[in-house]
Amino acid sequence: DGTSTGAWQVVLLGAGLDARAWRLSPGKRVARARALFEVDVPEVLERKQSVIASVSAGAGAGPPPPLTLTRAYHAVCANLARRDWTTRLRDAGHDPSTRTVWVLEGLLYYLSQKDSGA
């Protein structure tokens, strides 16, 4: 799969309140991802940051918990029903030549048939 010997990255489309970047570990035989990109509409990503901050503050920790799955986290504000989301993803640092794990859990439900057919 290449993740044990080379760079890899993760893209969560329609990320919602997913917390993989903070709760999952890649394990002993797989290196941490170079980067994790969460793509969602601004309102959702802002809400997520608010929840993470409030959980951290409630625990007395202050800053967000450390990333476990990745070395770098990127929130990409984009509407996946529009074609410009790929440009926004690249602008955030996604490298199309690096191996990528794409996660689309629960996303297609929110897209029209036309938007999900690509």
UniProtKB/TrEMBL annotation:
This is [Phosphatase 2A protein]-leucine-carboxy methyltransferase 1. The keyword Signal does not apply. The lineage of its organism: Eukaryota, Viridiplantae, Chlorophyta, Mamiellophyceae, Mamiellales. GO terms for biological process: methylation. Keywords: Methyltransferase, Transferase. PANTHER family: S-ADENOSYL-L-METHIONINE-DEPENDENT METHYLTRANSFERASE YKTD-RELATED (PTHR43619), S-ADENOSYL-L-METHIONINE-DEPENDENT METHYLTRANSFERASES SUPERFAMILY PROTEIN (PTHR43619:SF2). The keyword Metal-binding does not apply. InterPro entries: Ppm1/Ppm2/Tcmp (IPR007213), SAM-dependent_MTases_sf (IPR029063). One of its GO terms (molecular function) is methyltransferase activity.
